Structure formats: C-alpha cells, structure tokens
Amino acid sequence: MPEDELSRSSHSNPGKSLVNGIKTNPASNSPKSSLSVPMGPPVYVDLAYIPNHCSGKNTDPEFFRRVRASYYVVSGNDAANGEPSRAVLDALLEGKSQWGENLQVTLIPTHDTEVTREWYQQTHEKQQELNIMVLASSSTVVMQDESFPACKIEF
C-alpha cells in the first residue's frame, strides 16, 4: 500500500467505527452490545402507557429502569396473544427494584384479567416493598349500550 493511502486509512479509521451514530471499538464490542442503546439517565414522567398492550414483545426490565413513571397504564385483554404479559408485570418489579429510590408507583390495569389478578396476588408483598400500588376500578362508565370499569386519575 502506498504511504499516502496508509496514512489516510489510519487517520480516517483509528480503530473505531460508528454503529447507529455511536463511536464503538469493534475489537471490544460484541454484536449484541453494538446494537443496544447507550446508557443514559432515567426519564421521569407522570404517566406512561406500557407499550404494545403490555405484550412481552417490546417491554423488559430495561424499559422500567429507564422510564420511571408515577403511573403506568397496563392495557391488554387478549390472553391468546399474551396481553397483558406476566413477564412484563414481573419486569416492572425487577426494573423498579433497581431505582435506588422508593418513589410511589401506581399501576392502572384497563381490564380485569386472570393474568393481572394472579400477578397481583402472587407478588403482593414485593409490590408493597417496592411501593407499588395497583389501582382497582371502583367506578363504571356507561357509554351508549356499553358499560366498563374506569379509574379516575388526578394530577
């Protein structure tokens, strides 16, 4: 290789490359870590909707470590598709246990499902330890010919 090409290549790529806009060192990164999102400070919000009807496809403990909400809405009423997912509800416990602060969290299920009932009963002590309250619906909304349970949230 001519000296000017060697000089150019060593300056243009000094052992690092960009992966998703982030400088990486290919020799030290595994393929999985090069695709992950870089760590940053957690985001605090009042209300967060758990993605994809609380399906395990997109939500894991990392979501709850990074998105710290006072209220999480758990929708999903399709047991055949795993909605809501027990794994996601467990991920909330795991993620919140790593916050390092005992902020009050309220979980708001939009449907009364077998999965949420079983999870609530089986993990109630852990929920209390982590300052997580599950809001049960005590009101009913009637719209047209349909009625359904509802919760009132005040900020």
Automatic annotation (TrEMBL):
A GO MF term: microtubule binding
Any one GO CC term of the record: microtubule associated complex
Gene Ontology BP, a term: dendrite development
Origin superkingdom: Eukaryota
Compositionally biased residues, Polar residues: 22-36
Stored InterPro entries: MAP1
Region of interest called Disordered, as start-end residue ranges on this chain: 1-37
Signal peptide span: none
PANTHER family: MICROTUBULE-ASSOCIATED PROTEIN (PTHR13843), MICROTUBULE-ASSOCIATED PROTEIN 1A (PTHR13843:SF6)
Full protein name: MAP1A protein
Gene: Map1a
